[in-house]
Amino acid sequence: MSTPDRDAILQAVSSAVLAVTRHLSVREVLQVIVRSAQRLLDARYAALGVPDEEGSFAEFVAEGLTDRQWEAIGPLPRQHGMLGAMLREGAPVRLPDLRQDPRFEWWPKAHPVMRDFIGVPIKNAEQVLGIIFLANKQAPGGFTREDEDLLTLFAAHAAIALTNARLYERGRELAMLEERNRMARELHDAVTQKLFSLRLTAQAAAHLLPTDPGKAAAELDRVQRLAGEALAELRAVIVELRPAELDRHGLATTLRKHAQLLDRLHPARVTFTCDELPKLPPETEVAVLRVAQEALHNSLRHSGAEHVEVRLAYDNGRLALSVRDDGAGFEEPAASRGLGLASMRDRAEAMGGKLVVSSGGGTTVLLEVPA
């Protein structure tokens, strides 16, 4: 590829990855990066992996493989072999034959054979955001030092693009959370007013019943109407406030993403683990998610914890959520008066479950519901 061609590609890549107004998602940015890198270095294969904290990759995109090849290869790679070494070392790697390097371990049976190899980390300061690597240069001779310099420059652009995309998605998530909180407050106010009116009307009916049964009956009719309106309001709460993420991803992924978001926004370390879950009723997912969000909010705002651990466990038809922190704890009589704790207990009871809150060396909120 001639120098003018490469300059044109780099200019196009710069325009694409730095254009914040395009509002690309992280996945879309990764795909742009991989396709551009493959063309830039004239490689047969190109891939980009963003590591997670569980020894695998949160995102992994590739070019040069068919859908059928992807299916035959199987699960996403773990952080082992050359990929793991690059994540640990954070330095470029250029090899005439990947298979001859001692850091290489193995491929799945259906994996294509890769010979000449080049990879560089995508870094934000000292943090490795991901690794981009290419294999099997189309032209003879393998990858050159010029290719390594070009890919390193390209990776710097990719780091900016990936950071911008993450910031945009984070801002969008925060805006959605704020909008949902606003909607919850409005609906909560409406339901509270309706229930307050219902209570006063019921009291009036009870007062009139001994002396004026006719008026008491009219008040009871009003009680029935207000109860119906309150029920409609509550149904609106359930419909409007069910997070769209639950429909797209399910409870485990939604809660994992929420924990990751809070981990980025707060000084405390927020972690999430989960058993394999069966398909859950929608109302169970909503209840468990809301209890988790309330417990996390309380922990991050009041406990002064350094670590908050969220876990979903499933056993013998029951789902258990635990939110445990290493913070200051609380005194049960004072905490029990909080609206948040009362709300969590109400949700647990409505699902036929139970909520236990314990304090001592931190606080643990444990919710168990039938699944």
Could you outline the blueprint of secondary structure elements for this entry?
Elements: H1 3-18, H2 26-41, E1 43-51, E2 57-63, H3 67-73, H4 81-89, E3 93-95, E4 117-124, E5 127-137, H5 145-208, H6 213-241, H7 244-249, H8 251-265, E6 269-274, H9 282-303, E7 307-315, E8 318-325, H10 332-335, H11 339-350, E9 354-359, E10 363-370
Parallel strand pairs: 6-7
Antiparallel strand pairs: 1-2, 1-5, 3-4, 4-5, 7-8, 8-10, 9-10
Overview of the structural elements:
With 371 residues, the chain is an alpha+beta fold. The chain folds into three domains: 3-170, 2-Layer Sandwich (Beta-Lactamase); 176-241, Single alpha-helices involved in coiled-coils or other helix-helix interfaces (Up-down Bundle); 249-370, 2-Layer Sandwich (Heat Shock Protein 90). Helices cover 54% and strands 20% of the residues. The chain is built from eleven helices and ten strands. The chain has helices at residues 3-18, 26-41, 67-73, 81-89, 145-208, 213-241, 244-249, 251-265, 282-303, 332-335, 339-350; strands spanning 43-51, 57-63, 93-95, 117-124, 127-137, 269-274, 307-315, 318-325, 354-359, 363-370. A hairpin with a 5-residue loop joins strand 1 and strand 2 (57-63). The protein starts with a helix and ends with a strand.
Provide tags for this entry.
single chain; 371 residues; alpha+beta; Beta-Lactamase; Single alpha-helices involved in coiled-coils or other helix-helix interfaces; Heat Shock Protein 90; 3 domains; five-stranded antiparallel β-sheet; five-stranded mixed β-sheet; 11 helices; 54% helix; elongated
